Amino acid sequence: MIFQLILIFIMIILAVAASLFKDLINAVVACAAVSLITSILFYFLQAPDVAMAEAAIGAGLTTAVFIIAIRKTERYEK
Amino acid sequence: MTLMIFFGVIIIAVILALIRAVKGPTAPDRVVGVDIMVTITVALMVLLGIFFKRRIYLDVSLIYAVLSFVGVIAVARYLDKGL
Amino acid sequence: MNQIIGYIVMGVGVAFLFLGALGVFRFPDVYNRLQAGTKCTTLGAFLSIIGAGIVEPTWFLKCLIIAVFILFTNPISAHALARASYKSGVKLWDKSVVDKCKDFEECAKAQEDDK
Amino acid sequence: MSGIYNWMYYIASGGLILIGLYIVLVKTNLIKIVIGLNFIDTGINILLICIGYVRGRTAPIFSRPGISPANVVDPVPQALVLTAIVIGVAVLALALSIVIKVYQHNKTLNVTKIKGLKW
């Protein structure tokens, strides 16, 4: 029980950090970490198939799409 | 009981990696923190599979072990001025 | 007997995971952090997954597949990250004594000049 | 103390939705706004899954004989969320392609300086 509470706390900290970073690469990396913790929460909620989809999409595809978009535009938030 | 001690140690390790991922001065520091967090999480998922006694739960860990390096490779190729 | 051996192997793996995370937290430089984190964490994840396979003997094949994939993909990402952080201009720690990659790049540049 | 254990997943989903809403309303960078939309998507997925969760039951996959429909969690929200994750990634890719076209047309990502819709 206390494990889920600590994981939720970690997830909220990472989301707040993603909103505060000025460098968009750091924000995207924090976004991938939020997806990771979300996958563990789905695992605790007895939904392994949803955790599998979230793992495959959140770990690889979302980060790659964001990185390609940042490559085409600019890196720092002014 | 033994598994509970292991979960506690792993949670402390995740918190240490989290501090590095939030605090690290440059972008590769944060990527290192998140990469370590991913590898610790794969081990945590296997131990949770033993805790819940369901064999089907190992598939999540398998997917994460296969696909987790794609995001790190993407960030590394961006910092390398490639992609 | 199976249970005891499995839990001992798993405990060694979890200890290595903790030491890897502690190294990532404590070390002063990107390259030091990468070295500590990747080596310790790869060994720790390998041992804890193999220990899980020993505790439940019918799961051993799937656990072995996961461990082999960890062993393949983790050094690839670490190598790519170290190369990228060197090329993007992250400085070494000021007490580092040797920089082999700089020598190698100067040597490659000299060979290109010769041609 | 046992009260928070019943509410912690709702706290997680509500916190993610609020942080995403804050990013969408306050930040001015377009890629940051898309990151906020991604957070809102994740929060709603956690909310839908934890509505169907019953404590003490197991996953709805009949892989061994001892599992009957009386002791599994609700499988309908899981199928719903499994579809919603995939559609969320498609919407994300479309939004980022629109952001790239806006950047090529206006040479900036700041939403207060894009004057194409003001007249």
From TrEMBL, chain B:
Q: Where are the transmembrane segments?
A: 31-50, 62-79
Question: Where does the UniProt entry say this protein principally localizes?
Answer: membrane
Q: Where in the cell is it found?
A: Cell membrane
Q: Which UniProt keywords apply?
A: Cell membrane, Membrane, Transmembrane, Transmembrane helix, Transport
Task: Kindly list the GO CC terms recorded for this protein.
Answer: plasma membrane
Keyword Transmembrane set for record: yes
Signal peptide coordinates: none
Q: Which InterPro entries match?
A: MrpF/PhaF-like
Please indicate if the UniProt record lists Nucleotide-binding as a keyword: no
Xref: Pfam families: MrpF_PhaF
Q: Kindly give the membrane topology term recorded for this protein.
A: Multi-pass membrane protein
- Molecular function GO labels: sodium:proton antiporter activity
Q: Which domain of life is it from?
A: Bacteria
The family classification in the record reads: Belongs to the CPA3 antiporters (TC 2.A.63) subunit F family.
This one is known as Cation:proton antiporter
Source organism (scientific name): Aerophobetes bacterium
